[in-house]
Specification:
Length: 208
């Protein structure tokens, strides 16, 4: 099946109801200037899928298939989160619901800071990385989902910084820039972020 066959269908469903994520994707898709309308699943009254996979890849595919099945259209889904090596990769796929309630950014950030406080040694940076996996399905039963992965490495701050972004952005420190992810503009972030990297790979696939 052609990489670009879904482009002839006119509409691509974005399998997300996360406002922050949708805003980032809308900006990224606008930059791609695709000859297709990208519609967030909420506008089609599609609720979130049950994410019961054990990896970012599995959950991204689950979400894409769910949106495609209900809409009858090709769909693209993102599964993303922050992985901290010193926590054996946690919060990982549970990033959005780390503190219990899905999407409670403040509680999630607070829990991560509390857990790292016990492990943090004076003057020692704690490494972290944002991960994004995009899954594109032509239809709900597509046997060959396309996968695009981005990894953004940085450090985890002791205190939140910045007002932009969402999720763990205020805790994600980029030492080479001297900024947190939440102190960057959307344009700056999209150029180098995990989501921006995955979208660049997606864009490159369209040019093959």
């Amino acid at each position: 099946m052609s990489t670009q066959s879904w482009l002839t269908q006119g509409t691509l469903v974005l399998a997300s109801n996360n406002k922050g994520k949708i805003a980032e994707f809308e900006k990224l898709f606008a930059e791609l200037n695709l000859p297709v309308e990208v519609i967030a699943q909420g506008k089609l009254n599609i609720e979130d899928a049950i994410e019961d996979g054990l990896s970012f890849v599995e959950n991204a595919i689950i979400k894409a298939r769910h949106a495609s099945k209900i809409s009858g259209k090709p769909a693209i889904a993102d599964d993303s989160g922050i992985c901290i090596p010193i926590l054996d990769g946690a919060p990982g796929i549970y990033s959005a619901r780390y503190a219990g309630e899905h999407g409670d950014d403040a509680a999630n950030n607070q829990k991560l800071l509390a857990e790292l406080k016990l492990l943090r040694k004076d003057g020692q940076a704690i490494e972290g990385m944002f991960v994004c996996v995009l899954a594109l399905v032509q239809h709900a039963d597509d046997p060959l989902p396309q996968i695009f992965q981005g990894i953004w490495k940085g450090e985890v701050l002791e205190v939140a910084r910045g007002e932009n972004g969402f999720g763990y952005d205020p805790l994600f420190w980029l030492p080479e820039l001297g900024l947190s992810s939440a102190e960057m503009s959307k344009e700056e972030k999209n150029k180098i972020s995990h989501r921006g990297q995955a979208m660049q790979l997606f864009k490159a696939s369209l040019e093959q």
